Fold this protein.
Amino acid sequence: MRREACWRRLVRREIERLISFSRSLAREGRLDEARIAALQALEISKSTRVKMPRRLKRWICKNCYLPLIPGVTAGVRLRSQGGMSYLVVTCRGCGWIRRFPYKR
Ligand SMILES: [Zn+2]
């Protein structure tokens, strides 16, 4: 329904707003507040069942909810293994490591 789509768009906008707020807090070194904002976005997504866009979700630490910003809160390097390339992201808040397949 149209009304439903509209509501979802509003929720998604709120999620995006929280994530960008969270990232700016992290850039200022306010990591605990950044985690709270990111967690709030995840909770809104969960309770409303509006999916968080993947491009946002993959840059939140699954372990401590820190927004992962390359060079600020995350270390990012490229690794090749068996003909595949991976982006290896390390959370500087808790040391959590995640690999993403990377297409060249
Ligand atoms: Zn972490």
